[in-house]
Design a protein that fits this description.
The complex is a heterodimer of chains A (307) and B (181). Chain A has 2 domains: 136 residues, Aspartate/ornithine carbamoyltransferase (Rossmann fold), CATH 3.40.50; 147 residues, Rossmann fold, CATH 3.40.50. Chain A is α/β, with parallel strands linked by helices. In chain A, helix 2 links the parallel strand 1 and strand 2. Chain A has 11 helices and 9 strands. The N and C termini of chain B lie close together (11 Å). In chain B, the strands form 2 sheets. Chain B has a 5-stranded parallel beta sheet with strand order 3-2-4-5-6, sandwiched between helices. The radius of gyration of chain B is 16 Å and the shape is globular. Chain B has one domain: Rossmann fold (3-Layer(aba) Sandwich), CATH 3.40.50. Classes of the chains: A alpha/beta (307), B alpha/beta (181).
């Protein structure tokens, strides 16, 4: 297929064909990171700027390394120590950076829709690296890539997304991507953390973790986002662990080939016990490795689109 | 309709002849290896390697995808499947035979050589192409050539191979004509 999108704002707007195309291109890039010289000249002379208005380790570093492995020039920008702390608006900041001759902006922002807003106001390409509780498309893509790599397919698998569905952009991007590619998605968690109309996204809801563990081929364990929660969505962490945490003993009920995923950072001992997080069913570090290839593919595809 | 220039017999005979020439040219004292440029160069490399093996020369065989090294990314389009580069042997001090289906501008071969140097330092690189259609934009010339083909302005020459196409053949495709299967 011919890639024509200038921006990557979310998986909601992508077709199944476009998603598969990104995954296919990413598999070409995965090999690059196994070479002695882990670099290709594809984006030589292009400039990528990482604009991160929220904290991030994995995504920020992964995009930086992706840009560098493509031979792009890289600028990084974060909220502290810049004019944003003087009250400059997002669009003003972006236009000033763009005026320096930037080709792709990678934006992480606390407000849902920030990346779309940016894409409507500047000329260069925009990649959404997480916008509030809306979407985190490259995380969704790397999860899809990892499932496809580990399980050999996506269609027909039953994937449980567990935890704080309400506050999670990772959940939303995963749900869009997985349902488009034919997986059966079950969202699992305390009812206080599951949005009321979530079934409209084509998923089933389950509040019984033991049932989910028995039925699912893949369990994607979301991080409890203490920083995004107001009030107390569940009585205590202890209770959450008892009801939804995955431990070795609980995992005994699972299918023998179950795949355990987590977007990171893991609250060890909460979503996953350390033995499960580091155990043979866990693909958490593989997700990080694949994230690099997926982000290289995204930057590469957007850079190839004119105007 | 594209014009069929050569049939499967020609393709078979040419693989034999190119294999003869590669063997005759063998540089003494270095380890030779075959590298096919994806997609059809890789299929052609498979055939040449199989023919050399039949004659008792079992050479290392690898495949490369030059997409990330191309200089026309900004022109968009044309980006289809990318399959991983799989070299699988140390290229340092090797005598490498690069294999491709059609040589034209020479830009793919330039990209392939850039890629190879990211893997190491071959002692020598030879170029083997099934079809040379001219129109060179780089100072690159093949060491082993199946045939030189004149193509009308705006047209193409296409090698079709049974492993991935309907059968073995060479077609000349005029401007606006449909691609052969």
């Amino acid at each position: 297929m011919n890639w024509t999108r200038k921006h990557l704002l979310g998986l909601e707007e992508l077709s199944a064909e476009e998603i598969v195309h990104i995954l296919d291109i990413a598999s070409g890039f995965k090999e690059v990171s196994t070479r002695s010289i882990k670099k290709v000249p594809a984006l030589n002379g292009r400039t990528v700027v990482n604009m991160f208005f929220e904290n991030s380790t994995r995504t920020n570093l992964s995009f930086q390394l992706a840009a560098r492995r493509l031979s792009a020039d890289l600028l990084t920008f974060s909220k502290s120590g810049t004019s944003v702390s003087k009250g400059e608006t997002l669009i003003d900041t972006a236009k000033n950076i763009e005026a320096m001759g930037v080709d792709i902006m990678v934006l992480r922002h606390g407000a849902a829709g920030a990346a779309k807003h940016l894409s409507e106001n500047i000329d260069c390409s925009v990649v959404n690296a997480g916008d509030g509780q809306h979407e985190h498309p490259t995380q969704g893509l790397l999860d899809l890539y990892t499932i496809r790599e580990v399980r050999g397919k996506i269609a027909g698998l039953k994937v449980g997304i567990v935890g704080d569905i309400a506050h999670s952009r990772v959940a939303r991007s995963n749900i869009w991507g997985l349902t488009k590619l034919g997986a059966e998605v079950m969202v699992v968690g305390p009812s206080t953390l599951i949005p009321r109309d979530i079934e409209k996204m084509g998923v089933t809801v389950c509040t019984d973790m033991d049932q989910a563990i028995r039925e699912c081929d893949v369990l994607n364990m979301l991080r409890i986002q203490f920083e995004r929660q107001d009030g107390a969505p569940f009585p205590s962490i202890r209770e959450y662990i008892q009801l939804f945490g995955v431990t070795e003993s609980r995992l005994k009920q699972a299918k023998p080939d179950v795949t355990i995923m987590h977007p990171g950072p893991v609250n060890r001992g909460i979503e996953l016990s350390p033995e499960v997080a580091d155990g043979p069913r866990s693909v958490i570090l593989r997700q990080v490795t694949n994230g690099l290839a997926v982000r290289m593919a995204v930057l590469f595809l957007l850079a190839g689109v004119d105007g | 309709m594209p014009t069929k220039l050569y049939d499967e017999e020609w393709v078979r005979d040419t693989v034999m002849r190119l294999s003869d020439e590669i063997l005759a040219d063998r540089v003494p004292g270095t380890g030779r290896a075959i590298l096919g440029i994806r997609t059809r160069g890789a299929v052609l490399a498979d055939r040449i390697a199989a023919e050399l093996k039949r004659r008792g020369h079992d050479l290392p065989l690898g495949y490369i995808d030059t997409t990330f090294y191309r200089d026309d990314l900004h022109k968009g389009g044309g980006l289809k499947e990318i399959r991983p580069t799989a070299i699988g042997f140390d290229v340092n001090d090797r005598d490498i035979v690069l294999v491709d289906d059609v040589l034209s501008s020479g830009r793919t071969v330039r990209a392939a050589m850039d890629l190879l140097f990211d893997y190491g330092r071959p002692s020598c690189i030879r170029l083997c192409v099934m079809l040379d259609r001219g129109g060179r934009e780089m100072p690159i010339y093949p060491n082993f050539t199946g045939a030189r083909v004149d193509v009308p302005k705006g047209g193409f020459v296409r090698l079709r191979l049974a492993e991935i196409d309907r059968g073995d053949a060479v077609y000349v495709v005029g401007r606006g004509e449909e691609e052969p299967a």
